[in-house]
Amino acid sequence: MRGGQYKTISTYPRDPDLENQKLKHSNRGMGFNFLSILSLFAVGWALSVIGLGAFTRLMDAGLGCPDWPLCYGHMIVPHSPMIDKYKAWAEMIHRYFAGFLSILIMAVIALSFFKKYRNRYLMIYSLCLIFLILYQIILGQLTVTLKLMPVIVVGHLLGGFLIVSVLWLIFLNSRFPFIPKRNPISIGVLIGIILLFFQIILGAWTSTQYAALSCPDFPFCFNAHPFFTMDFQNAFHFFVQKGVNYEGGILSDSARQTIHMMHRVGALVLTLYLFLFTYLMRFHLKNAIVFWIWGMLILQIFLGIVNVIFKLPIFTAVSHTIVAALLLLSLLTLFFFTRRERQS
Ligand code: HEM
């Protein structure tokens, strides 16, 4: 791989004056500035909210406070022998962190409208953030009131991944001047992002259906014993009854094993695609980002296998969620740079 080489695949006639003008305009926000620092901080904070969300679920504390947004009608967990204070605190800390994240996001949105930073992309990202915050508030409430209904919890987790992604795009956009360029390679990166998104949905479905321990061995489930039968119909039945408490999961063993194994198959497809694509396109991609993606991918598979073999240790389970988010940010970075005009 050639060190740091980064080639444009497609070229189209350019007007040098116009290009210079565009560069000058975009250089206004170049380098670290208040918006890029704030959005970077918000990305870090959003990752910790995602981690805390995973921790809360793994502690079976998702219903630690049965009401929303207060906990048993209070801002902090009240003292009562009837209340499991560890679970209630896990849930409340997640809510406080999410509350502060909303404030950070408002600040990022407000700054994006300042003349110094304003551009078309930042406006679109800000609108997405406004929509996503409202979406997360509604889903956060439904997660509690619909008693961890899987489709809601998955939607809530995806909302978190989308928020961190948009914040990251705001960071990239405010840190590196962006002039879009046509580049067919970006389509290949986009396919990778879509595959990763499906893999994240499958992972979230595995965890919200409590299927993590349904296949205790690796690479096959019960060593591909004949009693392991796939049950696709029940495994991916999204719309289920209201009023049921989904904590601990309600699906049959075979449905859970199907979900679990589909997540592994998804990992295989994603890994093959990403390795093959980045290897074949290595002369056109930024080396540092490609190596980072490979590292994240290997770490993620390692964490997944440790989760299975050691029966979901809390540290590796939370790390598996955070590394999935980091992988998504890495692919978005690759996408951003393949679509960005190179500057001298
Ligand atoms: C390489 C791509 C992979 C990605 C992007 C990925 C992503 C995810 C995500 C986002 C979750 C949901 C976490 C949550 O709800 O907090 C998850 C759960 C899970 N993944 Fe993966 N995963 C990958 C590979 C694997 C592999 C190879 C294995 C095992 C062989 C594995 C095993 C698991 C298990 C057991 C869970 C459930 C954990 C829980 O209940 O908290 N994953 N994965």
Total domain units: 2
Number of strands: 0
Task: From the alpha carbons, calculate the radius of gyration and give it in angstroms.
Answer: 22 Å
SSE sequence, one letter per element = HHHHHHHHHH
**Overall pLDDT, averaged?**
88
Report the total helices. 10
Question: Helical proportion?
Answer: 55-70%
Named once each, the bound ligands are: protoporphyrin IX containing FE
Strand content: under 5%
Shape: globular
Description:
With 344 residues, this protein is mainly α. It folds into 2 domains: 30-177; 179-344. The protein is 64% helix and 0% strand. It has 10 helices and no strands. It has helices at 16-26, 34-58, 85-112, 120-145, 150-175, 185-208, 232-235, 253-280, 287-309, 314-338. Bound molecules: protoporphyrin IX containing FE. Protoporphyrin IX containing FE binds at residues 54, 58, 157, 196, 199-200, 203-204, 206-207, 212, 218, 263-264, 267, 270-271, 297, 300-301, 304-305, 307-308, 312, 317, 320-321, 324, 327.
